[in-house]
Amino acid sequence: MCSAQSVSYANTNPLMLLSGCGAVMRDEKGRAYLDTRNNVAHVGHAHPAVARAVATQVHTLNTNTRYLHPNVCALARKLVETMPAGSELRETGVVFFVNSGSEANDLALRLCAAYTKRRGVVVVDGAYHGHTKSVAGISPYKYAYLGGKPDAVEAVPTPDVYRGSASAESARRDTAAAARKLREDGRGVSAFFVESGMSVAGVVMAPEGWMRAAFETVRGAGGLCVADEVQTAMGRTGRWWYAFEAHGVFPDLVTLGKPLGNGMPLAAVVVVGRCADEFAKGPEYFNTFGGNPVCCAAGLSVFDVLKAERLRNNATAVGNHLVRRLRAIGEDASLDRVTVGDVRGIGLFLGADLVTDRTTKTPATRYASLLCSALVQRHNILTSLDGPGDNVIVIKPPMCFSIRDADRFLDALHTELRRLNVLPPPILGKNNNVATRTPT
Amino acid sequence: MCSAQSVSYANTNPLMLLSGCGAVMRDEKGRAYLDTRNNVAHVGHAHPAVARAVATQVHTLNTNTRYLHPNVCALARKLVETMPAGSELRETGVVFFVNSGSEANDLALRLCAAYTKRRGVVVVDGAYHGHTKSVAGISPYKYAYLGGKPDAVEAVPTPDVYRGSASAESARRDTAAAARKLREDGRGVSAFFVESGMSVAGVVMAPEGWMRAAFETVRGAGGLCVADEVQTAMGRTGRWWYAFEAHGVFPDLVTLGKPLGNGMPLAAVVVVGRCADEFAKGPEYFNTFGGNPVCCAAGLSVFDVLKAERLRNNATAVGNHLVRRLRAIGEDASLDRVTVGDVRGIGLFLGADLVTDRTTKTPATRYASLLCSALVQRHNILTSLDGPGDNVIVIKPPMCFSIRDADRFLDALHTELRRLNVLPPPILGKNNNVATRTPT
Fold first, then answer.
1. What global pTM score does this model have?
2. Has the ipTM of the complex gone over 0.90?
């Protein structure tokens, strides 16, 4: 194969998937797989309304973005109108359309630097903000492998309340220390980048007050606050913007990507007017494909479908059901070798943290890998693992994922967990880690 | 308007364009505009075959790239198969699909650094490689405005043989000096980035031998050579890969973007196997949308249409016609105030350098702006300007641009040039620069 891809189940049986519908994908033999992980097919695989919108627009016009087009303006308006009333983003927000979450965070870096005239960035340990060279450099999840932490970056600890501790107080102390270091070394504080819900860190949700304290401290040091909602946007958590609505903070910039175009490459930065104005004084920013009429047609249709099918409500209802049943599985006393130690997240952005011991909370890395392998091989269920221990099942399916889908997944999960608790313990090398860990 | 865009004719009359066909776009009142500049709608606006391919695929499956899909492999194969027989890229080439030319060059930077373990980059003055923070940093066209040249970058002079001089010898001398500086300062030479045809620099084509000498010198210093074919790829010059086929060099990496998906966000890096292998030893590179089945369907269809409609031949024939007639206009002795001083490029990648004086070669910046304004207002012809003097009309239309289209454009151009030569000289402020200069 001459194309370089990072494929799931690569060591056992990579799948060739040729069609999709709702939360189901089918392979070349017509076998159907239940999809618990594809946060890109946001309103469902090959959703007919989105597909029609794309098909109509691509037959009419696609072009670079040198001209006005109603789709661009309409989609920008939709994004700004979902911001909370009274917030600066709602009142003055400007939208930059780009092609990926990585491009969105990369542009956000440039916007913050243009506004603050500084370059220091405070980030959160375990965070992932994308694959361009610059945003890999503000991603502790990646930069350890890429020659280490860049000099203008300081990281604060992951707000993990399951294995660690985090509070408003720790946020204030840690961000203040990071900001002080950046100032002392002459780099100054340009921005605080934070995922509203941390995905590759293993679905880590900051506790009450943590985000607000961090925002206040960074702003006190002159930095802007960037909420990376690439994983959580477009209603996945049941809310429009998790940062605002759950953490009660008001970011200066919000970035989003994956779900916006239901798989079409489309992403955006929404930024307060004062920052956009300062950026506009610099050289022209031009993004050839960003905001093209075809991808924007997809984005508009995603908004329509979310509303028509009440998918934010569905995310809340099915999410609550999943949390309840996952917790119940975690309480099954017969699972004494590997079990669900913690359930985190909200809506259809959930993590089930597999441990070998409820007290020590030891990540069940090898079991998790076996479990995902069994789920695809015996039950045709697609899952993914994340977290530093590769032991958190991340549940972020298409938003039409139903209670029935959830039950099918949960029944299979419980069955396989039971089986793993009676089988001889796994003896596995690293290569048997068959499910993929990483941002999807 | 709450979306931030960099729009053409923004100071006079920005256009809202709603449909397209071939080399024509139509506005909201149905007015047709001849498009001489849209290198994104590569095989023609809303080409029905490409539109059908996209529509079919988007109704079937779009997903992130965690799974195998025949479109990805087929498109990768097509790209590699167009490389010259015997070249290392043809024999061992690996394709990474991404979403934009910027992402392609950004990844190329990372690939080179992973292979060479060094970070110094040699670039060409006036070059533009994209908008992410890192590739803006290797783009002299941009970095002057962004806080200056980054410390790991050295630029060699633009190989401009119209206003300056350039030769194999100058290339050898200049790249050797740049490489020496990078080595002496401890950064080492990771890569040489060069556009096979320089677009924003004003359609500058390096002379015979220049590219080969530069490649040899940079390789001698241990660097890899990256041919940025974002502007010139997919047959625009009449050849598949201008770097190989016109300059006679064999790049280690080729990047391409704009034309590949006929407007769909799709771009690629083709890289020699030894470099891809080294990169694979590092952390996973995952690009959510890169190589998605819908955009790849567009890419495959672009290849089919190029072949079926013999568009590379068309580019050569119409390009030759344009060059001949532009040169003839330049020889019209009545044009003594503003004229075509130089015609550069090949196929449908051409530049007409407007000057106020054939001897001094003074850029006719203000006239050029007036000319483009007259062309859109009186003739419904879309044009664009580039070059450091904003005086080069860059001609890079859809590949179906016909002899008749060319004649319509050339007649209008000649008419308006004649008019500008008899009207009182323009008194214009900077803001009257109505046509847009920049990468499109």
1. 0.94
2. yes
